[in-house]
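ok so i was messing around last nite and threw this chain in just to see what happens. nothing serious, just curious
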Amino acid sequence: MLRAADQAQYDVGGWDTPKGLELNRRLELQATCIGGMTLAPFSHKNVVPMDVVNTGLQDAGQRGDYNRTPDHGSAPNNQRWVMHGHKQNDMKACNTWAASSADVS
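result:
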């Protein structure tokens, strides 16, 4: 995935172009979504206390670009993707590459 994303960014003129930044956000938000998926089994089987799982989800959901290069996605989109991954717990649900540009801003 990383190699394909790097090549795609190169093909659009670099990581720091508007399209390159969008591609990077898609990659980062996909990782956020997968992070939410990794917490799903813990919460469904009570392996880890729910307050610990919720802290992890909340922390991941508060990540974002915060006044810097827009390459990781907004905090609201990070929150949405981590919760989507956690609730769906299915790799197909984390397909940020098919999402609209607004969903990866």
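not much to say yet. Helices lie at 2-11, 18-44, 50-61, 75-88.
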